[in-house]
User: What shape does this take?
Amino acid sequence: MKPLDRWVFGLLGACALGGALAFLPGNRERGSLPVAEILQEGRVVERVVLDPAAPPREWVLSSPGGGVNRVRLEGGRIRMVEANCPDRDCVRAGWLDRPGQTAVCLPHRVALRVRGTGKGEDLDGISQ
Amino acid sequence: MGSPSRRLVLDGLLVALGLAVHQAEAALPPLLPGVKPGLANVFGLVAFVALGWRDAAAVTLLRVFLGGLFSGLGLAFLCSLGGSLAALAALILLGRFVPDRLSLEGLSVAQAGAFNLAQLLVVALLLGSWGVALPYAPLLATSALVTGLGTGLLARMLLRHPFLATSPLPGGSCETERRQP
Assistant: This one.
């Protein structure tokens, strides 16, 4: 152990411990809350955190050709509540609340997608 | 420091070895998101001790750019480049204290810490959000301690190799001569 070693190890150790204390207990829930994305024509038009404490919200998405999709966010979940497409698969997908779940309305090119945050998903692609 | 040809051969060798390890690591699944062993930096450290910080910078940057050419100039490359530049900054700042006041392992840990910090910055800038990147800080600090230590120890082992430690190129006429690096 050389004199400066103590500084290097100490500084990083403090970062590790301090950071762990700051982030792990309090932010665990907030940090790992999934995020829902509303996509239209392949582009993300809305991104909301699925926070159970957030007030309910609704979006109405109109597509060219008269397509309408109604999306509802409530109690940490999100779903398509209404669509005027023939198959209504997206509505039948029901509530989404876990990363990886999707509801796709192919005729209107509208989709809901739930992704994780904080706990890696977004970083996996980068770290590889 | 040895002859210019020795230096050239060593630099080339260290770039090639570093690139091989870099690519092998990239092919492995990450232990944890954002965490890689970073063993390729062993060769940067070896270049630093055997030849000096300029060679360490050349060996590291060449490896990063060549690695980027092999695996695509994507996000991984940006993270790698940002991290490596920060690690080189740490080397230039702290390298002069090795080995009197700072051990090779200490330098390696500082480099790993700088690398991870820069990587965190790159990710935060790209995502446009600190919220996603910042919770990684403790994980990255811990991994810097572990991987930096491992890399430093490995570099020390490698530097015991007679080829690196003292002798000029094998096959030369100076086998009996003992030169200090």
